[in-house]
Amino acid sequence: MTILNIETSGKICSVALTQYGALEMQLDNAEGMQHANLLAPFVDRILEEVRRKEMKLDAIAVSIGPGSYTGLRIGLSLAKGLAFSMNLPLIGVDTLKILAVKAMFRSENWTGEEILVPMVDARRMEVFTAPYDFALNPLTEPGPMILDENSFKDLLDSGKHLYFIGDGAEKAKKVINHPNAHWIEGLLPQAKDMMALSEKALREKDFLDLAYSTPNYLKAYQTTIPKNPLKK
Fold this sequence. Notes:
Layout: E1 2-7, E2 13-19, E3 22-29, H1 35-52, E4 59-65, H2 69-86, E5 90-94, H3 95-104, E6 115-121, E7 126-129, E8 143-146, H4 153-157, E9 162-165, H5 169-175, E10 181-183, H6 195-204
């Protein structure tokens, strides 16, 4: 079970080669949004490692959002091309679940009763989010949320301990003040964090359609038309 994992939903451009629960190789760059320039060379270096070790890829996995519109399109486009040219299945991995799994492996002191709340930064006080239990079941439908002091109040008041993670969690920290609210700082999605989810999808043959799959933006993509300085 050898998978090439691609994560481009956020600030980190990341590619990882995983095999049966082990990380074989990873390449990451967190110096800004350079995905268009870095992703293809990263993938080439991973494929060189595959050939050098005479390994056989079983699938291509890619984060499908939510996240940066541009980053998601770059990652999915390259992943589709690889899967098509190499005749491999394509796996789509939810970015919020990638963050939740990363938090799970961050500590061995979980009771399993906690609620994980991954957050992907959007504009202003908005995030893409959903609360997940430890079986990775969303307790509400994932989607955009404008944060305020009442966000997740029902869950927090129920006695559950909520752990906020991701680059959008800093916004929540500014407005949510509750003894059951906790923050895990510094967690951003990376390709190596996809391993458990992509291997599960491969076992279950949960694949994307190469022709029709699109990023999971969770919100309509908005374009702007630049003004023509010559037009009055």
